[in-house]
Every structure is written in C-alpha cells, then in structure tokens.
TrEMBL record:
It comes from Limnovirga soli. This is DNA polymerase III subunit delta. Residues 19-127 form the DNA polymerase III delta N-terminal domain. InterPro entries: DNA_pol3_delta_N, DNA_polIII_delta, P-loop_NTPase. The lineage of its organism: Bacteria, Pseudomonadati, Bacteroidota, Chitinophagia, Chitinophagales. Gene3D superfamilies: 1.10.8.60, 1.20.272.10, P-loop containing nucleotide triphosphate hydrolases. It is an enzyme of class 2 (transferase).
Amino acid sequence: MSAEKIIGDWKKKVFKPVYWLEGEEPFFIDTVIDHAEHHILSDSEAGFNLTVLYGRDTDWATVVNACMRYPMFAERQVVLLKEAQHMKEIDKLEHYITKPLSSTILVIAYKDKKVDGRTAFGKLVKKTEYFSFKKFYDNQLPEWVAGMVQQQGLTINAKAQALLIDHIGNDLSRLRNEIEKLTINLKGRKNITEDDIETFIGVSKEFNVFELQDAIAQKNLPKAIRIIQYFAANPKAGPIQMMLPALYSYFSKIYTVFGMDNRSEQALFPVFKNSFAVRTALGAINNYGYTGIEKILLLLHHYNLRSIGINDAATEDADLMKELVVKIMA
C-alpha cells in the first residue's frame, strides 16, 4: 500500500488503531506523518487530542500511557511516535499493539531500517497496518516526477524533466518543493519547460550533463569543449566526479541496446525513461556503432581512475575531460 492510499483512507475517515511505517525512503514516511499530525484532527481537536513523541526522548511506558487516554471533545485521539528506531525497548509496546484502544490512532515512524521480522515483536508489527517503504532508485524518478507534476495540474517536457532530476537527484522532498515552486512561478501556464528550470531553479539549459551527452553522441567536439569550459569556470555545476559516472551510466544503457531486436524509440523508452535521452542514444548508436560505444566505456573507466589520482600526475579536471572527449570522437 502506498502513502497516497493511507492518506486517501484517512480522508474517507477510515482509520486503524496502529500504523507502523518503516524503511529506507523517508519521504513517504514523512508525508504520512505530516498528514496525521495536521489533518486527521481539526485545530480545535488537536489541542487536546494530539500527542507527538520522539524515540530519543521517550520510553515505551510514556507511549502506552498516551495511547490509553480517551479523547476529549472528539471521536478519536492521535499519538505519533517519530524516530521510533531510536527508542529503547520498543518491543515492550507489544502488549498495547496486541490490544490497542479503538479511539486512539497510533502512528509509528521507524525510519532508515526495518523491524526484525523473525522476532515475536516483528511478526506482531506486521499484523498491524504495516508499511515498508523501499529506497527510491534513480530509474523510478521520471515516472514519479511526472506524477507529481500531474498532481499540480501541469505537464513537463522531457528535457526539463531530465534537467530537474539530474540537478536534484533522488531527494524526493526537494523535488516536490521545486515542483511546487515552479507551479507558483508559472503564473497560469500549464507546461514546464527547460527555460523554467533555468529561470526558477538555476540550472543552465545549455551547459549540463545532458547537453554533454548530446554533444558526444553527435560527435560535436566544439559543443563538448564549450560545456567542459563552462564546468571549469563553474565547478559546482559539473564536477568531474559527477560527470564521469553519469556518462558511464548513460553509455552503459546504450551498450545494452545492441542486445535488443527492437530499437525503436518506443522500445527504448523503458531503458532511458526519457524521450530526449532516447533520441540522443539513437544518434550515438548511429555515429559510433557497437565498437565505438565499447571504446567510450573503456575510456570513461580509464579517465575515472585518472580523476581520482591513479596513474595521473594531478592533471586538471577540465583538461582530463577535454582529453577524454577528443579521444572518444577520434
């Protein structure tokens, strides 16, 4: 079950007595906890019926005592146990979880880890409203961003989406905040473009890893050198430690395409998750072929080693990158 499903049930006034939220993806846990804290109860009800506890600062007895209180001037009370992974003797909540008070909603946030399912307590927890949120991976981001944008009643073009994801990575909270900021700044427009990403988030639409990928794919050496020179003048915009892994990941995906019978844009979309990246990949395949892509991967590996000081006498990052793209296109 997703965070959206839990919140959807709550909006319908469908509640369970105990919710256990765990896992390595804090965004979804925080989303559920935030809704429980601010939206299950009205402001007037929350004054008497909302208790927020933190695992570092509380103990199991305090949690149980809070849960055993009856609501005042409301149908239910809400008890939130945040950072539960830091609470000592959490397994002593077992008795309460076995027989919870129906008028209490206990929501437990157990971040960054999972309860041991082999223990009696772990088995009990999994009989509650149990949710384990797995780490969100990079290949899931395009679909998630598209969904978040759609929730705002907007669309986003492929290049803008790629720029946004590359700039922020898999920090879902920050991605949501930036999308909300874009929504405000669009002032009625419904489509997010790369110009918007540049204007409102501060990512250059001309000098970024995707444009470098495109330059290499097209064998456009002057463009590649201009981008590298921009990165040299703006080190935070494109450090070599970020560029090389990104290029290696991209060309590794292209390498796998040679094992596919169907190389249409539609067939390649699940691999690259972005129509802009697909078109660039098809250009690279036409310009380099199998042996050329293989050569690119070997060069990227070699220059990655040099960038961390292996077999290299402190060559400047920009010079390494220029040397790399020249050898790739030679």
